[in-house]
Amino acid sequence: MTCPATSMTGFNKSKEDFIWFIKKASTDKKSDARGELYHCLLKMFVDADTNRDGLVSKESFSKLIDMAASIPREYGYAPVDTELYKTEQHKETARQKMFDSMDLKGTGVITFDEWLKFCLEHILAKTATMDPHPILDHGNMEQFKEFLMTAVQPGTAEHTEMFWFLLELFTDHDTDKDGIVMMVDFPTMMDKVLETPKKLDIPHPDKDALFEKDAEKRKEFQLGIFKKRNPRGDNRMCVDEWVGLAMDIFKKMV
User: Fold this and answer.
1) What is the model's pTM?
2) Exposed/middle/buried for 1, CB within 10 Å: 0-12, 13-18, 19+?
3) Which of 27, 95, 120, 170 is the most exposed place for a label (fewest CB within 10 A)?
């Protein structure tokens, strides 16, 4: 997943994934989503830093705003310029006002920390008005089961959406960032992926064990699952094993 420069490629996410991603990035400083957002905003800043001195001038500021606005605009969360500004002069005046509000040090240029602070505060305010992720953290039992029926079928949009969800959970728990989740981190990852099914009380043959209230008993069952899916016995799980395991669990819920 790469950050765009001036293109409209966005984060290569569905609209639903974008909602989930941006909410997590703006509220969880330690998440991979936050790291991805940070580097994307940094890349935009560097692209607008024409002198390569760590500063963005007034002349390059509008380009920076245009790059940042292209992402939410792609998902329908920001209007186009023609809807925002009646004339070019109106746009220039508005951008100057934005520049002045961001230039906290009063230096006549924008530093990266000023840019980052402005963006995170703006994003946090916007995400507060967004609907929750329509399926993965929202909805009733029937809606979720309806989603799962399609999500477990490869080639569907719902399957792709579920894959990204599982992939981001995996990277969150890949603490060494080596493409591996260790057995010690597996129970937390399992708790996270089963949050919605547990909340909605979704039926499953192993429901009592999967949703066990006693944390130690639940952990013991989860580690048993890990060992069954880890024939090498090396206490390491790669992403394809995780996706296959999670999909198998979801298949038994439909």
Assistant:
1) 0.70
2) middle
3) 27
